[in-house]
Write a structure and sequence with these properties.
The chain is an alpha+beta fold. Helix content is 43%, strand content 14%. It starts with 6 loop residues before the first helix and ends in an 8-residue tail after the last helix.
C-alpha cells in the first residue's frame, strides 16, 4: 500500500554521428583535387544536395523534469536522491531538475492531471494500474522499454502489474508480499514461545492472546483499524481462506468477497477482538500508527511489508535484529497457503509531458538500475548506516531477481557487513504472493475498513450480513461502472 537507462539509444545515435562524420571526410578527400569545393561550401555554411541534417541528440536538448522526490523528513532517502540527481546532471547537464514531493492520491490524481500539475513522473501502487491506464493518466512507454538493454533482467513477478496487452505503462521499483512481523523479545519476556514460521490462524490467535497485556497497554497484535489500510490488512485473511475480491467474466466485474471464505476471515478478526482480547484498546490505527506501535514495543505483531516495519523497529525503535522476525502470513489451516497480498511501488510517466521529457524521465528512472554506481550506492549506504550505528534492511523483493548476476553482486556486498539485517531463509520458501484486484481496489478497501471498524466496535455482528451489505454497495457504486477496454 503503501525508483532504468536507454543506453542502446545513445549508442545508436552516437554511431550514426560517427558514420555521418566519416562520410563527410571521405567526400572531402574525393573533391580535394577540384579546389576543395565541397569543403569550402561546408565551411561557409552552405549545403550540398547530398548533405543530411544529423538528428539532434536528446542529451543536447534543454529539458526540465519535475521528479518524484522524498518527503522533507525522509532524510536518508533525500540524501540518496540528491546524489542521484548530481550524477544524472553530470551526464545530462542540459537537464533541469525540479523536486516535487507530492504523494500519489486516488482523490488527487485526476485534478493533478486536469490542471497539468502532476510531476513528469510519479510513484504509484500496484492496485492503481487499471485505473491509471484506462483514464489515460500514464504514458505508454513500450518503445522506451523495448529499446532498454535491461528489460529482460527485471523481476517479472512485480513488473507484470503494469503491463497490459503487451504494452508497458510503468517501471517497478520494488515489491512486497504482506507479512506479519513479530517482536520475539516481547514474546520471550511474557514467557510465550514463538510459533513456527509455518504457522496457522490458530497459532496467531493463541500467540496474540498470550502476549497481550492490557494493563500495560500492550496488544498481542495491532491490525490496522482505520483508513484503506484496514481493508488491506483484512484482505490477506480473505485470500488465506480461499476467497477473492472480485471476479471478471465476459467483461463484467462482480464482487465476490461476501463468500463463505469472507465470512470465515471476518469471524477470525472478531476472535482476535472479542475472544482473545488481543488488539489495542484504541484499535483505530492507521498504517503509521500500527507500525509505530510495533516500533515502540507496544504490540507483539503487526501486518505490513516486512521492510518498513523492521526498518522502523531497528533504526528508530532501537530494537535488535534478533528480536524482530519477519513471518509469512499465517495459513488458515495446517498445510494451507501462506497468502499475502503482492503489491509494490512503481514509477509512471505523465502522458501530458513531451516525448523528449518522457524519454529523459525514463532515463532518470532507470539511471541506476543494474549499474556499478548503484552497487557503489548500496555499499556506501550500508557503510554510512554502520557509521551511524544503524542497520541496513534489504527489501525482500527488489526490481531485480536475487538469483540474477546483479542480485548476487548485491548479496556479496551485503555479506561484507555485520549491520545488514538477515531474514530467516525459511521465510522465502513459505511466502505466497497474491495479486490485488485490478478494479476499484482502493474503493473496496475503504468499504471493508468500515466493516472492520463495525466488527471491532460492536460485539455479535453477523459477518454474512455485513459482507452482503458491503458487496452490494461496492457492486452498485463502483464495479457496475467499470468500463473495460
Amino acid at each position: 500500500m503503501r525508483k532504468f537507462s536507454a543506453v542502446m539509444m545513445c549508442i545508436l545515435l552516437f554511431g550514426s554521428l560517427l558514420a555521418a562524420c566519416g562520410g563527410k571526410e571521405k567526400a572531402a578527400d574525393n573533391t580535394k583535387n577540384e579546389g576543395n569545393k565541397a569543403t569550402n561550401n561546408a565551411s561557409a555554411g552552405g549545403n550540398t544536395s547530398t548533405d543530411a541534417a544529423a538528428p539532434e541528440d536528446i542529451a543536447d536538448k534543454k529539458i526540465t523534469l519535475k521528479i518524484h522526490y522524498p518527503l522533507p523528513d525522509e532524510t536518508t532517502l533525500k540524501a540518496t536522491e540528491d546524489d542521484k540527481i548530481a550524477r544524472f546532471q553530470k551526464k545530462y547537464p542540459n537537464v533541469t531538475i525540479v523536486k516535487d514531493d507530492w504523494r500519489y492520491s486516488v482523490d488527487e490524481i485526476g485534478v493533478k492531471m486536469a490542471s497539468n500539475e502532476a510531476p513528469t513522473f510519479y510513484n504509484t501502487w500496484a492496485t492503481e494500474a487499471s485505473l491509471l491506464i484506462e483514464r489515460g493518466w500514464v504514458a505508454d512507454i513500450t518503445d522506451l522499454w523495448n529499446n532498454w538493454e535491461y528489460k529482460d533482467e527485471i523481476n517479472p513477478v512485480i513488473q507484470q502489474q503494469f503491463i497490459r496487452d503487451g504494452k508497458v505503462y510503468g517501471v517497478t521499483q520494488n515489491g512486497y508480499i504482506t507479512s506479519t512481523v513479530v517482536n520475539k523479545k516481547l514474546l520471550a519476556d511474557k514467557g510465550v514461545e514463538a510459533p513456527s514460521l509455518d504457522w496457522t490462524w490458530d497459532d496467531m490467535l493463541n500467540t496474540a492472546k498470550a502476549s497481550a497485556d492490557a494493563k500495560k497497554g500492550i496488544s498481542g497484535i495491532a491490525p490496522m483499524g482505520k483508513g484503506n489500510e484496514s481493508g488491506w490488512n483484512w484482505t490477506n485473511f480473505l485470500f488465506e481462506a480461499g476467497g477473492e475480491i472480485q471476479s471478471n467474466e465476459n467483461g463484467k466485474v462482480t464482487a465476490v468477497f461476501n463468500s463463505e471464505a469472507g465470512v470465515k476471515a471476518l469471524d477470525f478478526y472478531k476472535k482476535l477482538r472479542w475472544e482473545a482480547e488481543a488488539i489495542p484498546q484504541d484499535w483505530a490505527l492507521g498504517w503509521s500508527d500500527a507500525v509505530g506501535s510495533f516500533q515502540q514495543g507496544r504490540t507483539a505483531m503487526v501486518i505490513a511489508g516486512a521492510f518498513d516495519v523492521i526498518n522502523a523497529a531497528l533504526n528508530e525503535g532501537g530494537m535488535k535484529p534478533e528480536d524482530v522476525v519477519a513471518y509469512p502470513m499465517p495459513a488458515a489451516e495446517k498445510g494451507g497457503k501462506h497468502y499475502g497480498i503482492l503489491g509494490g511501488n512503481y514509477l509512471v510517466i505523465n502522458p501530458n509531458s513531451t516525448k523528449d521529457e518522457q524519454e529523459m524521465a525514463f532515463r532518470y528512472i532507470t539511471f541506476d538500475y543494474f549499474s556499478d554506481d548503484a552497487l557503489k550506492a548500496v555499499e556506501d549506504t550500508i557503510a554510512a548506516r554502520k557509521a551511524d550505528n544503524k542497520y541496513y534492511i534489504p527489501n525482500p523483493m527488489e526490481y531485480f531477481s536475487w538469483d540474477s548476476e546483479y542480485g548476487k553482486k548485491v548479496e556479496a556486498i551485503q555479506a561484507k557487513y555485520d549491520n545488514v539485517y538477515k531474514y530467516d531463509p525459511q521465510l522465502f520458501t513459505l511466502l505466497e504472493g497474491k495479486i490485488e484486484a485490478q478494479y476499484n481496489t482502493q474503493d473496496y478497501y475503504a468499504t471493508m475498513s468500515n466493516v472492520v471498524q463495525e466488527s471491532f466496535s460492536k460485539k455479535g455482528t453477523d459477518s454474512k450480513s455485513q459482507l452482503d451489505v458491503a458487496a452490494k454497495y461496492v457492486q452498485e457504486t463502483f464495479f457496475d461502472k467499470v468500463a473495460q477496454k
